[in-house]
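User: I've been trying to design a sequence by hand for this structure and keep getting stuck. Would you show me what you'd pick, starting by listing the structure so we're on the same page?

Assistant: Good idea, let's start from the same input. This is the structure you sent:
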């Protein structure tokens, strides 16, 4: 008979990955909230927030690399020979954060976070175009739903209560954010097969911060916005956004992928726009239009179906096998 303590421990070990995944979703849900708070309350430009977030995330990942004794990987010849891939990943990450954060100034948090989380749709399409990965009929239905929801959302965006003339621009910027991070993930998928996570994460984020620094430096000389002098609370929020959504959220997602099926993690990530929307209502009184909520839900359902499509296919195959009559042979 299994001791009660061991039984409870085993149950906790089964629940732990799901609990951590929930924590990750809550953590990343604050990402857009922090960005908007920094802009509205303290006047921090979205691009500047992106620069500091990637910088502090890179520093944090570098410290973790030292702690995990993986820092030597950065200076290996094989790593240096692939430096162009890390630079490209950093550029894509910089564009992702810059376009997504700026989109929050033109459209609601609900719409922006929903669209930026359509990454599985882009990954499915790119997988088919570049890697000849098959998309089954269920996946096609999911992609069709997500695209339809996106088109309807774009047409209904003129009903937004604020920034009416620029809401379509916000939608386009959020989609560019999703597109660039999809390419970033494809590079990461290739590199991380033979590379440790934290040193790679450090290189990519620090190169991203450098790109954003150059951009902000050039743009600030024209527009005259502040880049360096802020109240201490602003730097605290920069660090929180780096530690929370970037480091903690990223680490838990990678941990969850080792403990749970990939489709579970993929669908769980869709909790971010829901969590961000609830937080936006509670903190900023930012209520999306009913039609926008409806079309955003269509997109979320489409992304969820796409993420689950391979698993659903397996279940359908198994059910067909059960229904197939047994071959009794010649009796």
């Amino acid at each position: 008979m299994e001791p009660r303590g061991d039984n409870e421990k085993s149950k906790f070990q089964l629940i732990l990955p799901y609990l951590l995944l929930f924590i990750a979703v809550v953590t990343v849900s604050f990402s857009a909230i922090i960005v908007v708070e920094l802009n509205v309350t303290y006047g921090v430009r979205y691009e500047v927030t992106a620069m500091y977030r990637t910088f502090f995330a890179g520093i944090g990942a570098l410290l973790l690399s030292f702690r995990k004794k993986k820092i030597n990987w950065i200076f290996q010849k094989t790593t240096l020979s692939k430096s162009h891939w890390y630079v490209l990943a950093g550029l894509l990450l910089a564009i992702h954060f810059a376009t997504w954060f700026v989109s929050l100034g033109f459209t609601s948090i609900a719409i922006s976070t929903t669209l930026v989380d359509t990454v599985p749709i882009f990954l499915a399409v790119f997988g088919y175009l570049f890697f000849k990965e098959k998309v089954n009929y269920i996946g096609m239905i999911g992609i069709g739903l997500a695209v339809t929801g996106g088109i309807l959302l774009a047409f209904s965006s003129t009903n937004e209560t604020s920034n009416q003339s620029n809401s379509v621009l916000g939608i386009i910027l959020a989609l560019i954010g999703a597109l660039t991070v999809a390419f970033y993930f494809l590079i990461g998928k290739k590199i991380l097969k033979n590379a440790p996570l934290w040193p790679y994460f450090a290189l990519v984020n620090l190169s991203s911060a450098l790109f954003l620094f150059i951009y902000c430096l050039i743009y600030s000389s024209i527009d005259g916005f502040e880049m360096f002098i802020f109240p201490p609370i602003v730097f605290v929020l920069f660090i929180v956004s780096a530690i929370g959504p970037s480091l903690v959220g990223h680490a838990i997602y990678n941990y969850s992928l080792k403990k749970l099926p990939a489709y579970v993690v993929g669908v769980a990530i869709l909790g971010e726009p829901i969590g961000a929307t609830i937080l936006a209502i509670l903190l900023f009184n930012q209520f999306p239009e009913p039609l926008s909520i409806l079309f955003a839900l269509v997109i979320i359902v489409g992304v969820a179906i796409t993420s689950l499509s391979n698993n659903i296919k397996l279940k359908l195959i198994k059910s067909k096998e059960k229904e197939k009559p047994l071959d009794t042979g010649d009796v």
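That's my pick for every position. To get oriented when you compare it with your attempt: DSSP finds 13 helices and no strands in the chain. Residues 4-42 form the longest helix (39 residues).
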